[in-house]
Amino acid sequence: MLFLNEFFVTPYIDNLLAQRKQRSAAELAWELRAALQQKLARGGTLNAAETLALQVCTVAHCDGIQSILKSKRKSVQAAADFAHVRGLAETAKILANALNGEPVSGPVSMSANIRGEDVPIPLSPELNDKWAATDLTLSLIDESMDEALLDYIAEQRTEFARIEAPAEVVAKKELKSRIAELASKNTAHELVRELLAHRSARIRACISNDGNTLDASDCLEIPVAHRAGQALSAKQVELLRQQHGAAAHALLDIYAAFNGAEFFVAQNEVGFVLLPVEHWKESIDHIMLWARDVDYQDDSGEIPDYHAHAIPFGHIPGDARYWLLITRGKHAGKVMLSGDDVFEDLPRYDSIGEFFAAFILNIPGVLGSGGYVSYHHAERDVLFYPREYLF
Q: What is the b/e burial string over 195-215, where b = at least 16 CB atoms within 10 angstroms of the residue's CB?
């Protein structure tokens, strides 16, 4: 009997291209590169279109043009030719000149416009080496190799139909399904109660957040505790239900029992704060100020309408971002991280239940978000980062 998986019924490349409105071209091209490299690693061979795509990705995402001018010279030439054919004239010229040993003239300097004033940005000495201006120009030029590559792939889609999703993408999809399943079997309130009931809770922390080659000495278990606040009065909860609507009901079921909580407390340091209701106003004011002055400083009119009405229910100490429950608009009922997710207009979790299910199943995605939570090992003088929740 023949079983067809999803990435065959709906080719992986179609799934990738369908995400162009939700994810940046650079992110999608980086994922494509991983898929092509995986095909080679598994003993496969690339056709001409796939080879060209990998060559373009190699150049577009290199650490610096000098690092590949000798070792990946054919890729640089292919990328230069590709840029010329796709109408990226300046990129093609810079790459062609690089092949001839001609860098963009320097030296390099940078400045930022802060409240109408140009402020110089100090650069490290290595940014004024021979190829620094070339790398900086390629990164800032108003031509996108990644967008051009995705256009090319869409035109040549059948040539990429046999690429499989990278293992990391498959793993993320499986994790998302596990989180959704756990949330479907438990309310958000039940999940929080379960967390608070854990008496042998630990965080498995490792030196690195990525890779699978860690040995036992690279990880340790950190005992953690969860502490809940007092319940809100029924009157307060009802007023909040009326104010925020049905999208907030599942969250307010939690607050009816616990007006805030501290999760993953280790050595008296809190990993995650479920913010008490009395902190919501000052938190959303801070978030909106950050949005106006930083995320949307060029056009505050682009701030999504749902932003100001979101509930900032969660926070990791030290992080400028807050976890938001969206209460209005197309994302009502979903959870987003202020700054990142709002700017991308892309929710991270489909419900408050999924968010707390991720507390159990996806610690790197919540507690490890942004790298603000770590555990210092005094004897080794290294930091360990949260990787798994154990209980």
A: bbeeeebbbebbbeeeeeeee
Render 22-63 in DSSP notation, one character per residue: TS-HHHHHHHHHHHHHHHHHTT----HHHHHHHHHHHHHT-S
Q: H or E element: which one contains 214?
A: none
* Nearest CA among 159, 154, 152, 160 for reference residue 81: 152
Query: Residue 9: what pLDDT?
Result: 44
For 22-41, the pLDDT digits (tens) are 889 999 999 999 999 999 99
Half-sphere exposure of 172 (CA within 13 A, CB side): 10
Burial of 234 (0-12, 13-18, 19+ CB in 10 A): exposed
- C-alpha distance from residue 155 to each of 17, 63, 151, 158, 294 (Å): 11, 28, 6, 8, 37
- Cα 379 to Cα 52: distance, rounded to the nearest angstrom: 49
Cβ-proximal residues to 242 (8 Å cutoff; 6+ apart), any chain: none
